[in-house]
Structure formats: C-alpha cells, structure tokens
Specification:
This protein has 328 residues and is α/β, with parallel strands linked by helices. The chain folds into two domains: 2-106 and 305-326, ornithine cyclodeaminase, domain 1 (2-Layer Sandwich); 124-302, Rossmann fold. Helix content is 34%, strand content 23%. The protein contains ten helices and 15 strands. An eight-stranded parallel beta sheet has the order 9-8-7-10-11-14-12-13. The chain has a seven-stranded mixed beta sheet with strand order 2-3-4-5-6-1-15. Helix 2 (15-30) crosses helix 3 and helix 2 (15-30) packs across helix 10 (304-321). The protein starts with a strand and ends with a strand. It binds nicotinamide-adenine-dinucleotide.
Amino acid sequence: MLLLSREDIKEVFTMQDAIEVVKKAFCLVVEGKCDIPLRTNIQAKKHDGCFLFMPAYAKELDAASLKVINIFPHNIDNGLPTSPAQVFLIDGKTGMMSAVLDGTYVTQLRTGAATGAAFDVLAKNDCRIGALIGTGGQAPTQIEAMLAARKLEEVRVYDLNDERTKEFADRMQKELGSYGARIAAVSSADAAIEDADLVVTVTPSIKPVFDGTKIKNGATVSCVGAYQPHMQELDPAVLPRASKIYFDSAEAVLSESGDMLIPLEKGIITKEDFTGDLGDVLLGNIKGRESDDEIIIFETVGVAAQDLVTAKVIYEKAVAAGAGYRWK
Ligand SMILES: NC(=O)c1ccc[n+]([C@@H]2O[C@H](COP(=O)([O-])OP(=O)(O)OC[C@H]3O[C@@H](n4cnc5c(N)ncnc54)[C@H](O)[C@@H]3O)[C@@H](O)[C@H]2O)c1
C-alpha cells in the first residue's frame, strides 16, 4: 500500500491535471457509471463537528474509494484544517487497499478543480478580473483553479477576517505569482465582485456573502461553501438575472444546498430555472454559455466521484514516478 503525503502529491499532480480529472468524474456521475451511496454523517455536537464517510465505486475504473472527512469549524482558530481527511483507494479487482492519500489535500485539489472545470467550460473567453470570497482552507486551490482556467490580470480576495485576508493575498501572490495576476486584499465582498468576470464563494456562511445586484453581466459565479440546507452564500437577487444554473450533481445540490433550496422555497426560482449538470455540458447533452452577456451560476457541494477519480490518477502518477512511501 502506498502512503501519499501532500508533498508526494504535489510532486506528481498539478491543478491542470486535477481540472481534467474532475471533468471525467462529472461525466461518470451523469452517465450513472459511479456508485455513490449516500454519505454517512455522524454528528459530534459536543464540538460542533461531524464525521463524514464518503464511499464510491466505478466499475469502469476498477477502483473504489472511501474518504473520511471530519468537519470541525473551530479548528481554524487553532491553526488546524477545519476539514481534516484521508482518502483510501481500493483496487476494484482484488479489494486490496492500493493507497492512503492526504485527503485534506485531495479535497482541496478536487474542490478547486470543480470550480476550474466550471470556469473552463462556462466562462466567457475574455476574463480579466477574478473575485474570491473566503480565504480559509479551500481558498488556495480555488484561486489557483481560477487562474488556471483563464488568464486574469487581477484577483481580489475578501474574508470577514481582515488579517487572514491580507496574509492570504500576500501568500498567494508569492505562491501563484507565475500565473501573472495581481492578487489584492480588499475590504468588502462588494469591492471584490465589482466588475469581476469570475467569482468564487467558499465560506461556511448562512447568509448571502455579496450583493447579487452587483454581479456584472457576463460573469460566471462558482458557489462552493453551502453544503447544508440552512447554508447560503449566493444572494438570490442574482438568480432572476442569471440565464443558466448548473450543478456538479443536481441530485446532491438539491438535497443539500441552501443556495438553491432557500430561493426555491421562497418561490424566487423554480426547478425549470435549472439548466443541468456540468457533466451533461461536457458530454454535449446540454448547452453551455451562448453569449458573453450571460450571467452563469455553478453550484457545487462535492461528490465522492471527484475523490475517487482524483485519487486513482494521483496514485497512477505516483507509482510511475516512484513517489510516496510503500507500507508493507
Ligand atoms: N463543495 C465542496 O466540494 C466543498 C468541499 C470542501 C469544503 N466545502 C465547504 O466550503 C466552505 C469553506 O471551506 P474551508 O475549508 O475553506 O473553510 P474554513 O473554515 O477554513 O474557512 C472559511 C473562511 O470563510 C470566512 N467567512 C465566513 N463567512 C464569511 C462571509 N460572510 N464573508 C467572507 N468570508 C467569510 C471565514 O472567516 C474563513 O476564513 C465550508 O462550508 C466547507 O464545508 C465545500
């Protein structure tokens, strides 16, 4: 069994790799080629946390996986990841465990890559300004995915926590400087989204994090944080202006995300406003962007197929490169 740390994974797998792999995962989901039983959720109310167990199996890939991801929101105050995780990759022919991967990093990569895939497929070609709201654990790969998908001049970042916003902008400028964009901390979400072509929200917020009337025509918005019915980042005010709304998985989003469930319940939108899954656009079953003026929304809550396909490809690349630690 191969043990793959964050550093091992970085050695063999890029954000561009992740974007291509996640596109494959989204296609498997809409083709019904991935068994994804409902995840098991055990609450740890004493610490406002929960333990999540996310299994997946794809016959076509001869591989199965189980991600154990635990959400402990107070960890951020102690310098720990708020969603520590491991991914177990299993050989689908023998049932033997192939690898254990740093699941915190796999999650960051595949969640960033969902945004990257959406922007790659749905954003207009000519994008100059990006906006990122939320600068926590998932934010670095979100910003990298944005930069990998389009050649941007500037990305504006905002977080409720001022100190974190500034430290994040400086760190990202150093780490992602080779993409050629200026990464700037701003003092409000509305300053971040003003004139932005690409917008990412990645917070655990329970109320909208920006003013939807200020999203400009032609923008593509990726909403990443709202994975429970009471959670909401997207201002419903933008929905009547949006011409298309896509999901990583309609089934998952419409059972979990307040971004869609709350405006549905209030009658601001109906199910007829939903365009479909990104995998269907990738497979040519439904249309993507049709003009540079359209506002397009992408909602992702994450599906276990992303973990499975990402882990499988990382494992194959690591074996080929001789990376990781072989545990006998
Ligand atoms: N879609 C997916 O596949 C997926 C995967 C992993 C995590 N998530 C979710 O994404 C969200 C973010 O994850 P994380 O690990 O980065 O969380 P985190 O706790 O590390 O960081 C969240 C950040 O958001 C900021 N924030 C909260 N409310 C805000 C607001 N209104 N405006 C601006 N900033 C605000 C916080 O100050 C914090 O810095 C969580 O809800 C998490 O569960 C989604």
